Amino acid sequence: MSELAPYLWSYFAVGLLLTVIALFRRGQSERWRIAPICFILLFWPLFLLLTPEFIVKRYDDLPRKKKKTWQELIDASPEDFLTLTDEEKLRVELTVSDGEEGTTFFPDFADFQKVLKSFWEQDIPPQAYRSLKDARWRLSESYREAQNISYSLAEPDWYVGFSAEFVKSISRIDKNKRARVLEAITKLTDAPFTVHGDTVKPLTGNLSGLWRYRIGDDRLIYKVITSTNQIVLMSFSSRGSVYE
């Protein structure tokens, strides 16, 4: 709000000037007709400027609370979620839902090494990589030849989705972590439901369907949607850190 204050005060000054001019240059009957419009034009910036600080702070804190919720999700064990209040569970569920936005899906037989290498080394995000690959295929000689061939492709066992949150969270990891992320994705596509000690665990309760994959001090959160055979990679972060 502090960043907008100079603009709002300027708007208020202009509104005040227009109101004075309009009221004093009109007849008595016209003044009453335009008065409500003038007062709205004049005073709405003041409502914003005088909004109580605790209300402004509440909305300014939303992005930080969302990031904090993600970190709590990564750090907690399945048992920890049994102690959450209804409000806390709702906040986590909304964060999880937001985490699926902007997801780009690939069949499980896709070359994920190429997909992520293009992202890490050439700044080509997964969504753009898929579009670029499709465009090149359609412009190729092989595509024109394939138009005259009738065949069917086998459905993949799983579709692996890269959510916008996941892509953001792996954008700056080092080479060692990149290799381990690729290894984890390969294992997840082979057996997304296989519990492996403390490395791969399902979350329970209201978070049923979410899984946590431990990679050293890091956590990869993913979601399994059996109805559509989808694995959504939702986030990756080190334990105890906060997203940038």
Structure notes:
A hairpin with a 2-residue loop joins strand 4 (210-215) and strand 5 (218-225). The protein is of the alpha+beta class. Helix 1 runs antiparallel to helix 2. It has two domains: 5-60, no CATH class; 82-135 and 154-238, RelE-like (YaeB-like fold), CATH 3.30.2310.20. It has helices at residues 5-24, 28-49, 53-60, 62-75, 86-99, 112-122, 126-139, 141-146, 164-169, 175-190; strands at 104-107, 159-162, 200-202, 210-215, 218-225, 230-238. The chain contains ten helices and six strands. The model is unreliable at 54-63 and 240-244 (pLDDT under 50). It is extended and about 80 Å long. Strands 1-2-6-5-4-3 form a six-stranded mixed sheet, sandwiched between helices.
Strand order of the largest sheet: 1-2-6-5-4-3
CATH class of the largest domain: Alpha Beta
Supply Rg: 27 Å
Please identify the structural class as seen in this structure.
alpha+beta
Sheet with the most strands, sense and barrel status: 6 strands, mixed
Keywords: Membrane, Transmembrane, Transmembrane helix
Organism: Herminiimonas fonticola
InterPro entries: RelE/ParE_toxin_dom_sf, TA_system_RelE_toxin
Protein name: Addiction module RelE/StbE family toxin
Keywords:
244 residues, alpha+beta, 6-stranded mixed beta sheet
Note the topology.
Blueprint: H1 5-24, H2 28-49, H3 53-60, H4 62-75, H5 86-99, E1 104-107, H6 112-122, H7 126-139, H8 141-146, E2 159-162, H9 164-169, H10 175-190, E3 200-202, E4 210-215, E5 218-225, E6 230-238
Parallel strand pairs: 2-6
Antiparallel strand pairs: 1-2, 3-4, 4-5, 5-6
